[in-house]
């Protein structure tokens, strides 16, 4: 019997292996899309150095999230994962709660199922929820969050998962979203949160400081937002290693 390399078409024989050498069938990578550099860091050095994973960062820009997801698909990834934090819409969800949404929806009525391998959500200790809302903007105010919750039935909201799911569907790939709640439903974000990240998903420190100089009353809300985000980021590092163990 002859061995066959990945990508060989029907009827094409792979080169015979030299005596004493075995060809390994290397799995295609899992494509992971993060919005922020901090979310990428939460994957941990072991995952980032593992060639079973390919990671991209969108800078919390939805259009770039879709472009990066398309790039991961074109590079041969077999599944796309939206990984990071989310804003809470369900008042019952506390900061740091890890979610396993069954589908991602948009305000425009788009609806994509997410393909969770059996046992993965339980291994992560993630809470199953029916819907995650994909939004093209930051949901800043608690009243806006309440309205989004009623309109969509979603438990949480982010700015990447719908774009990742759209790119995955276009490429014929499965997608999942692993998201941890940061700001809870009852908490409003400071206005400066809308453009606090640069294109690489890193905090714009000088911009934040300038905005605080102009609006010092935003400091308490900013500190609360940081605590909430830290709680969400702390729940993420244990999640990524499970991806390769559950059939992805």
How is this structure best summarized?
The protein is an alpha/beta fold. The chain contains eight helices and eight strands; from the N terminus they run E-H-H-E-H-E-E-E-H-E-H-E-H-E-H-H.
Show the helix and strand layout.
Layout: E1 30-34, H1 37-42, H2 45-48, E2 53-57, H3 62-74, E3 79-88, E4 98-106, E5 111-113, H4 120-124, E6 127-134, H5 142-152, E7 156-158, H6 161-171, E8 174-181, H7 205-214, H8 219-234
Parallel strand pairs: 1-2, 1-3, 3-8, 4-6, 6-7
Antiparallel strand pairs: 3-7, 4-5, 4-8
Overview of this protein structure:
- The chain has 248 residues and is of the alpha/beta class.
- The protein contains eight helices and eight strands; from the N terminus they run βααβαβββαβαβαβαα.
- The chain has helices spanning 37-42, 45-48, 62-74, 120-124, 142-152, 161-171, 205-214, 219-234; strands at residues 30-34, 53-57, 79-88, 98-106, 111-113, 127-134, 156-158, 174-181.
- Helix 3 packs parallel to helix 6 (161-171).
- The longest helix has 16 residues, at 219-234.
- The chain is globular.
Structure summary, number of beta strands: 8
N/C terminus separation: 29 Å
Question: Which structural class should the secondary elements be placed in?
Answer: alpha/beta
Uncertain stretches of 5 or more adjacent residues:
1-25
Please tell me how large the radius of gyration is: 20 Å
The side-by-side strand order for the widest beta sheet comes to 3-7-6-4-8
Gross morphology: globular
Average of per-residue pLDDT values: 84
Fraction in beta strands: 15-25%
| Helical residue percent band | 25-40%
């Amino acid at each position: 019997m002859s061995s066959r390399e990945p990508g060989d078409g029907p009827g094409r024989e792979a080169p015979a292996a030299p005596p004493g050498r075995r060809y390994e069938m290397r799995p295609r990578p899992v494509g992971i899309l993060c919005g922020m550099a901090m979310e990428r860091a939460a994957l941990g050095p072991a995952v980032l150095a593992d060639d079973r994973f390919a990671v991209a960062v969108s800078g919390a820009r939805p259009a770039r999230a879709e472009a990066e997801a398309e790039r991961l698909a074109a590079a041969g990834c077999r599944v796309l994962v939206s990984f990071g934090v989310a804003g809470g819409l369900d008042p019952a969800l506390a900061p740091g709660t890890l979610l396993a949404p069954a589908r991602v929806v948009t305000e425009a009525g788009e609806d994509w199922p997410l393909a969770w391998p059996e046992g993965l959500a339980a291994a992560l200790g993630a809470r199953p929820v029916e819907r995650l809302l994909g939004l093209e903007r930051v949901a800043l105010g608690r009243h806006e969050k309440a309205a989004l919750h009623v309109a969509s039935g979603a438990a949480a909201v982010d700015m990447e998962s719908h774009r990742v799911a759209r790119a995955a569907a276009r490429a014929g790939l499965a997608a999942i979203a692993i998201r941890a709640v940061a700001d809870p439903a009852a908490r409003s974000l400071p206005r400066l949160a809308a453009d606090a990240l640069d294109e690489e998903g890193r905090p714009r420190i000088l911009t934040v400081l300038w905005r605080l100089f102009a609006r010092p009353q935003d400091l308490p809300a900013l500190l609360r937002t940081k605590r909430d985000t830290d709680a969400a980021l702390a729940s993420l590092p244990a999640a990524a290693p499970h991806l390769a163990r559950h059939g992805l």
